[in-house]
Design a protein that fits this description.
With 211 residues, this protein is an all-alpha fold. It is built from 12 helices and no strands.
Length: 211
């Protein structure tokens, strides 16, 4: 799941420009992430404080990983929405796009919103879980280790982004961007699947909550 965020920094900008054209307002679409997170984090945190952090991380990562599969759909499936009210509101009214609306505008909007909602659930609770399971006096060490997947993702994302763009979303020639996003989605889904399959090895009692 960490890889998805990095692909939004490395892969998404070139994908957006190549599919939607130079000057496409792809940055404004991604800005939805910050808006959703800022608004929902305190609300979700207050409403779910009695739910275990492990369950929240599992639910949130599943939602985040699942959202990427939307980008793996054929754009033609989204054309009716692009030609209808959603396309007019998102692309023309909000983003100022003129003329026919590319279905990727609607796809990216829905994907970013769902991705962000998932992030609201799992990101804060991951660090809470890490602190909750750490032995007394070792909280800092456990918190440091919790960042290890992020650093490993950084090592992989840069080179992987270039390979995916070159093969599936090149600057010239035929593009198969949905295949590129499918590969990213399949990598992301390793997280929730792993949390389910390896639950008995990973999950431990969280202080102050029932198992």
């Amino acid at each position: 799941v960490r890889l998805v965020l990095l692909h939004m920094y490395y892969t998404y900008p070139k994908f957006g420009i190549r599919e939607l054209g130079q000057g496409a307002p792809i940055g404004r679409l991604w800005s939805l992430n910050s808006i959703v997170v800022i608004i929902l984090v305190p609300i979700v945190g207050a409403l779910t404080q009695r739910i275990s952090a492990y369950r929240m991380v599992l639910f949130g990562t599943a939602l985040t990983a699942g959202s990427v599969f939307l980008m793996a759909m054929p754009p033609g499936w989204w054309q009716p929405l692009a030609d209808g009210l959603p396309g007019r509101l998102i692309a023309q009214s909000w983003l100022g796009v003129q003329g026919a609306v590319n279905p990727y505008y609607v796809m990216i909007f829905v994907y970013v919103v769902i991705y962000s909602i998932g992030e609201v659930f799992w990101t804060p609770r991951l660090y809470e879980y890490t602190a909750a399971i750490a032995p007394k006096g070792q909280e800092a060490s456990y918190m440091s280790l919790s960042y290890l997947p992020f650093f490993l993702a950084k090592l992989l994302a840069g080179s992987l982004s270039g390979i995916l763009l070159a093969n599936y979303c090149p600057a010239g020639g035929p593009r198969h961007s949905e295949t590129m996003w499918l590969i990213i989605a399949l990598m992301a889904v390793v997280t929730p699947v792993g949390l389910v399959l390896l639950r008995r090895f990973i999950q431990v009692q969280e202080a102050g909550r029932e198992a």
